[in-house]
């Protein structure tokens, strides 16, 4: 059996540096992430971290991934952009632009959430922030759970967008959305589902503002619970992404030489 076409590449830098960042790709990341947060976080606030929330996230991710399949595949997630960079699908510069756009989009999206979901419907005031707590489980166990879930999600994305696979973009989007659904359903009761660092960061910021805004004049309130384990939302996806990259190396072959320049964005219409 002939070996699969090797698409795994090393991280690459564009010749023009930050000037090479594709503004169109960044705008798409901003709009997609804003839409994702604005639609999904209210459901998470109202229904918790169970089946309904997982289905909503999975469906929204599927639709947005398919809608922008010819552009950035609607990464909407810093760990996805880092993984795409590490496997040569986008440049380092484009990764930076995408992540900044994702964080900005998530912050605007969570502002819409605060408008749609009034304070009376958010008794905790956390605005859907994921706390990373699971009973008496320590941070290490929660981190391990999140790492495994993110590994599954990211390895699915890497393989579903592999150019040597000739499946339709429609099915690729379904695989990605279903993987997100499974991972959120798995981690929902454990950590709240810290699969997307941009979304977790935006909710924590909005939650901090809402909690302080509810405090009586002169009262000192703490938002420490929102930030105590927030580091897991960033580190666990990166650890899971590293594992996904290693798996892809073994499946498609290790890169033999460094590329001169990678594409500015990913075209997943394979």
TrEMBL record:
Pfam families given in the database record: MIP
UniProt keyword annotations, A-Z: Cell membrane, Membrane, Transmembrane, Transmembrane helix, Transport
Entry membrane topology: Multi-pass membrane protein
Organism domain of life: Eukaryota
GO molecular function terms listed in the Swiss-Prot or TrEMBL record: water channel activity
Parts of the chain that traverse the membrane: 21-39, 45-68, 99-119, 139-158, 170-190, 231-251
Chief place of localization: membrane
Record localization: Cell membrane
GO cellular component: plasma membrane
UniProt record similarity statement: Belongs to the MIP/aquaporin (TC 1.A.8) family.
Protein name: MIP family transporter: water channel
Native source organism of the sequence: Ostreococcus lucimarinus (strain CCE9901)
């Amino acid at each position: 059996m002939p070996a699969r076409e090797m698409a795994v590449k090393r991280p690459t830098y564009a010749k023009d540096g930050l000037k090479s960042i594709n503004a169109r790709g960044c705008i798409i990341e901003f709009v997609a992430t804003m839409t994702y947060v604005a639609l999904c976080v209210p459901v998470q606030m109202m229904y918790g971290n169970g089946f309904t929330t997982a289905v909503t996230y999975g469906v929204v991710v599927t639709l947005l991934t398919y809608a922008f399949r010819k552009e950035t595949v609607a990464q909407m997630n810093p760990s996805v952009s880092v993984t795409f960079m590490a496997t040569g699908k986008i440049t380092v510069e484009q990764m930076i632009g995408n992540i900044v756009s994702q964080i900005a989009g998530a912050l605007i999206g969570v502002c819409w959430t605060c408008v749609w979901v009034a304070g009376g419907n958010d008794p905790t005031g956390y605005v859907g922030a994921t706390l990373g707590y699971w009973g008496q489980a320590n941070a290490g166990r929660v981190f391990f759970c999140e790492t495994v879930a993110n590994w599954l999600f990211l390895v699915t994305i890497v393989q579903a967008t592999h150019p040597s696979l000739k499946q339709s973009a429609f099915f690729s989007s379904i695989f990605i959305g279903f993987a997100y659904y499974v991972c959120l359903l798995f981690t929902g009761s454990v950590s709240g589902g810290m699969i997307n660092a941009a979304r977790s960061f935006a909710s924590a910021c909005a939650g901090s503002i809402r909690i302080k805004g509810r405090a009586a004049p002169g009262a000192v309130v703490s938002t420490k619970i929102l930030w105590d384990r927030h580091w897991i939302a960033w580190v666990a996806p990166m650890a899971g992404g590293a594992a996904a990259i290693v798996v892809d190396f073994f499946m498609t072959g290790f890169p033999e030489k460094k590329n001169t320049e990678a594409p500015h964005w990913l075209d997943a219409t394979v």
